[in-house]
Design goal:
- By secondary structure, this protein is mainly alpha-helical.
- The chain has a domain at about 10-165: nmb1532 protein domain like (Four Helix Bundle (Hemerythrin (Met), subunit A), Up-down Bundle).
- It is about 80% helix and about 0% strand.
- It has helices at about 10-35, 40-75, 75-80, 85-110, 115-145, 150-165, 170-175, 180-190, 195-215.
- It is globular and about 60 Å long.
- The two termini are about 35 Å apart.
Length: about 230
Amino acid sequence: MPAINERMADVRDMYMAHVMMRREFRLLPQLVRDVPLGDVKRAEIVGAHAELLCLVLHLHHEGEDVVLWPLLRERGSEEAATIVPAMEKQHHAIEQAHATVIALLPRWRAMATGGEELATALEQLLTVLLEHMALEEKEVLPLAAKYVTAAEWDQMGQHGMAKSPRKTLPLIFGMVMYEGDPEVVKAVLSHAPLPARLLMPRIAPRLYASCAKRVHGTATPPRIGV
């Protein structure tokens, strides 16, 4: 168990990440449907964005599988006995839906055909993802704040960063910052090296604005929050 005076997890960054995923995954199905049949240039732009989001989602949940669930099983007693298996079951459903999207993406990106099938698969992924995030916020995050130390919580973020292409990290952070609480953004960056603390608040939002204009047609896509 954590030491008595050990700092516990600040789970606010998880809410912030969830807001980003709610926004971007909600917008994806219509983005795919709006691509004209055979417009491979546009399909590549939207497809690359979808692929990045799917990677972020996969690594986010992989970090929970590796770090969070074992800690809650060990320390959460009866409080975790029901919810952790439920979370793992939902992760399995999300991974199945995720695998379908990943299987459909390459052909659509290359040929801009089969868009409706891909959009439907994205909607199915969104459905299970929204259900999972809502339950996680209600049941799991209070347990994590109670039983998981700040250092252990940070391991999940480090897992995702270690497995993400380095060049994508500022863009991903910009996606999160777009609707992020400035106080939470500052807290997250407080653990980063000094150059990142200084540069990320300026570079990341610009990268996301450029990406959003290319993908969504505007540097300020709808803020849909929770």
